[in-house]
Amino acid sequence: MSDTSNDGAKSSVTETNTIKARHPAADAISMFVKNRAATVALFVLILIVITGIIGPMVYTTDPFDMVWAPFSPPGQEGFLFGTDYLGRDILAGILHGTRVSLLVGLSAALMTVFIGVTVGALAGFFRGWVEEVLMRITEFFQVLPTLLFSMVIVALFGPTLPIITIAIGVVSWPAVARITRAEFLRIRELEYVTASRASGSKNAKLMFKVILPNALPPIIVQAALMVGSAILFEAGLSFLGLTDPNVVSWGQIIGSNRPYILDASYTVTFPGIAIFITVLCLSLVGDGLNDALNPKLRQR
Amino acid sequence: MSALLEVKNLRIELDTRAGVAPVIDDLSFELQAGETLSFVGESGCGKSMTALGIMGLLPEKIGRIASGSICFDGEDITKACDERLREIRGNDISMIFQEPMTSLNPVFTIGEQIAEVLRRHQKLGKKAAWQSSVELLDAVRIPDPKRRASSYPHQLSGGQRQRVMIAIALACKPRILIADEPTTALDVTIQAQIFDLLQDLREQTGSAIIMITHDMGVVAEIAERMIVMYAGRMVEQGQVDHVLNHPRHPYTKGLIECVPHLLATLTEERLELTEVAGIVPSLAEFGQDACLFASRCNKVDQQCLQARPVEQHFDNHQVSACWHADKV
Amino acid sequence: MAKDNLTDTLLDVANLTVRFPVKSGTPFAKKQWLKAVDDVSFIIKRGETLALVGESGSGKTTTALAVARLVDTHAGSVDLNGHDFLALAGEELRTARTRLQFIFQDPYSSLNPRLTAEDIVREPLESLNASDKSNHNKIIDDLFEAVGLRPEQKKLFPHQFSGGQRQRIGIARAMATQPELIICDEPVSALDVAVQAQILNLLRKIQKERNLTYLFISHDLGVVQHMCDRIAVMYMGKIVEYADRLSLFNNPQHPYTAALISAVPSVDRERRSKFTPILIPGDTPDAINPPPGCRFSSRCPVAKPVCSESEPPLTANTDDHFVACHLVTDFGESPITFMRLSH
Lengths: 300, 328, 343
Hints:
heterotrimer, A: mainly alpha, MetI-like fold, 10 helices, 69% helix, C: 343 residues, alpha/beta, Rossmann fold, 2 domains, eight-stranded mixed β-sheet, four-stranded antiparallel β-sheet
């Protein structure tokens, strides 16, 4: 009767005798690790995070202090990246800016995911008029010109870090909502969801404990890419001067040194490279996650 | 008379995560012109791979014919260039697949898909090809063929789509038609229609048919000879009547007895189905020098575990790859 | 319906109708409905197995889902052990689900890929509070043993099991709350034949051991003939024949049933030489606007004018053998006499 018994027959060598439990995510992790570009990018990102945390503690120069003459070229007088138009240490600015950019990037991405997943999940699960209303709201936010709208929010409520984070989050969530809704629509038709209902699960449990964990892969990918675009967004806002004047961010360094781009290009280049590397690494990690989590690429 | 298709010691390898696996391991058989041969087995036994190997459609980069030969009308097509294979495919040897939904291109009309084959292989002009296309749709019993030729696949039912596949496959009157589980996805009454159609067409065109299936009933109805596959190896072959009446391999016997067949007259009694214990071996275990069925067999002994069974030939041309073939 | 002994009846389905709205081309066109299940009635006695047989579009799976309250019913009643199952709602419905469980068709999509086998079987126990929490582990261990899985397999994830093993997990899950009725929706169709036999034997074994009642959905007549006591044949949402196993297979009265049985390819030489298969041409007609009269009339080889005029009612002419056909005589003789053809 069982897979293993039948008068005299040996149990098949393929029986799951000593096999260890292997969560489906383990497959994804091993695929990710095989992607060298993504793994290196992840490593670099970790380095950037560590730099952001420890850097300002080690290199204690205040980025707002005028420590030298303006436009000191990089490498001279002990200033690795030189000084800007006010004589402020650019290296200090970049190190402090790491914290700000990462913080804004992560918070905005988290907010985006939170709003987007909630809206998408409700729309995809309940369908009917709930879906109609939520999708119309989503579309409304989607067609807003993102930069202009966030500028309006910042202009109305003041340029502080929390407001900037909210402004970015408010215009970015529709993409996550659409992805979430699509995944919910697909998964709710699968038999294990029906089986869970037949086992007596309530709606909340179905949405968040049964469907959502299985809907995560594309959401995770989008979240990783979101961090990158949030950082770029913040840089853009800062470049336009819509930044918290009490903190130094990469975009702010670029923005304030904009008039001097031709004379002292290094003031703009270094923070630009910092943004470039960070966003590139986030992109590579996002791509790596996509390949690892995308079931179509996996061999059965 | 030499066989239309002669396969000798064919070995097809596939790259898997666990290494190279011989999904077809030393397979030899012959197909005479006009004959219907059936490949039977469970999933993963290699029956579809054999068909893909014959057609030269193995998955690129990860699949290859490692050794052996496939002689079609005297020509070894394992050594043929891509150009020659393209000439043969659809023309001399054609294939119909299991899923009619995904085998037809959704953006072309069915008439166009049939005509395309005719234009390419028979070099017919546009108008002549379309005309032949309509005739073929009639031959496969699609009602109102002239109008339906302009339909798209999604406008047809599953059974109709499979008929279109058959029309495409038979358009150039191939010498061999390979049918890979053509009715598994269809209702049984539609299946009956399709088999009836295939049998009629076979008589008309004289094509040999290789029918790949997991259903012993289908084998009994349609085929003259059968080959039973297990884990990439042939375990038994012979004439259908002989094999079904007296299987000479424990797997064949198990496969026949484990299915509840419809009987001529039903009685009150309901016997427990004979089970074949265990599960098919994974790809990583293919290719061993031992009988791959040993772990599930109730006649297993030391010899089965130590050496791959040698083929035993019986007088009625039945062949069994089992150390205990005469005792089954 | 014949009701010999009312206390014996576990499930009583009467006039069940399930319909789905059909999206029309324009928003102002009249709303159209697809009657997937149309006025279906049957009973299942305790300990028995009733099969719903049909091809795609027959409505058999929808019937099963409707009985299990997994799709909405438009009309009709479902009595489980004398209680109106359709009237329950909210908490009452959830509690009642302990008595009626479901085994799904596709072993590859009916198990949550992110839960261990143990947690999958545990889910109904937890959601439905079927017993004390302290008992759960013991129940799960017993279930695993009953379906032929080993205790160390509890911690594995679905993708680490074969198709047959996954189906065993699904069966264990269905048994967890000790239901009285289990609906099996094509439980072996997605499995290889050798594994099918294992699962079918398992299902019969646990049925005997636990006095279970099955509603068995299948398109495979061989399996049905082996597993079931009574059979209802469905076509386009309606039951066309409803009889005991021996009666239906040895004397199919409805032309569709006869054609269905004759279409099954068989290894039995004797059977094949005895009966010529009945081929029914074409495909099922438009399900949204079925033609008037008998739904099978457009494809029936022996249809007469009366068949396209009025729908034949499901009536019994011999004891407990119901058929919906105008042309079946009062003595239960079928218009298709292929059974009596001999060569």
